Amino acid sequence: MLKNRLFYLLILLGVFLFFICYNGYLSYYVLLTALALPLASLLLSLPGILGIRLKFRAEELSAQKGQSVPLRLIISNRLPFVSGRAKVTLRTRNTLTGETQEEHFSFTASRNPLSIVHQLSSPLCGQVVCQLRKGRVCDYMGLFAFPLRLSQCPRQTVTFYPAVHFPLLSVSHAAQPDSESDTYSQTIPGDDPSELFGLREYREGDKLSRVHWKLSQKTGSLFVKEYGFPISDQLLFLLDVDPGPEADLLLDAFATLSHFLSQEETPHRAAVWKAERFSVQEITDETSRRFVLNALLSAENSAEFPAASEAASQKMFSGISHVLYLCSAPKEGLIGSVLQQAPFARLSILSCASDPSAIQIGLPAGTKVISLRSGQITEALNGFTL
User: Fold this and answer.
1) How many angstroms separate the CA atoms of 36 and 141, rounded?
2) Which domains does the chain have, with CATH numbers?
3) Structure confidence at residue 176 (pLDDT)
4) Is 267 exposed, middle or buried, given 0-12, 13-18 or 19+ CB atoms closer than 10 A?
5) pLDDT tens, residue by residue, 193-218
6) Which of these, 38, 81, 53, lies nearest to 149 by C-alpha position?
């Protein structure tokens, strides 16, 4: 618009020079015409400007990162006029990484609808908020600008989920003892009277309190009860994910491992560490996994993931055989709390810290540390035993 105004001022200057140098009716009429042109342009443009209607929508609300989602802008004019040149700015912001981009679109609105399709993609996972801003339309000469009503175009949110890789993984089925677990061994008897493992004939040294008297009376032989042996058989993902580019690596690793466990029908849980509290979710299928991801993919929506009570936080470690701690940099206090509540569980740390050697300082023996690097998720996880 500045270019058009400068060009008009040059023309007006030339007209004034013509008016001064040439004494006659012609120069007078030319000057009046030059002065009246902006007003005429404005009056002729107003019907087309006032009739502009915009519709903005995302064709899909979710995709995997790297894929494209069409954003469609439909422009029309409810009046049988053509508007001047219009311009809008599309602003996109990834709420997880904070990355912001802007695209500019120019168009004219007529009675026939015009559709502009923009392919939205994101190299990183996260919730991308798309919003039209700074809309304006000019008159035919491009000298005056009016704001466009963008309130009729609500913002669209597109979720880009982390990528699932396919490294060579395996699951350890060697359960570990856990007196707090609700799961019991099918092959080893124990001492938990709340669960009956089986019955067998009396042997010397067996406690009389374990004799099954009713069955013994019916059969004429002494039978004793064998109690259950509580074991740990579940995996727990401890997700300490802060907003930023590093979160993309951690969520890729979580999505990859969780998808593999679901394929193997292996039960697992996810605990999100937010505001010094845990939020726990059982993961049984893609729906429950996406519930966890949706809470992590946007720092703005993290409150939607309910925080666990103190009792629920303690119960979430019940039956856990393997804790996988995903973080940018491990927190010693958090690791100590985990080891205190799940003393029989294996501990693995998946981190994207810049100095992997510093992570292992102070960790208990047997802790596995995996360093995550961009573009090397498959290589980092190859051969990992869950």
Assistant:
1) 12
2) 52-161 (2.60.40.10), 169-174+233-385 (3.40.50), 189-228 (no CATH)
3) 54
4) middle
5) 666 777 888 887 777 777 877 777 77
6) 53
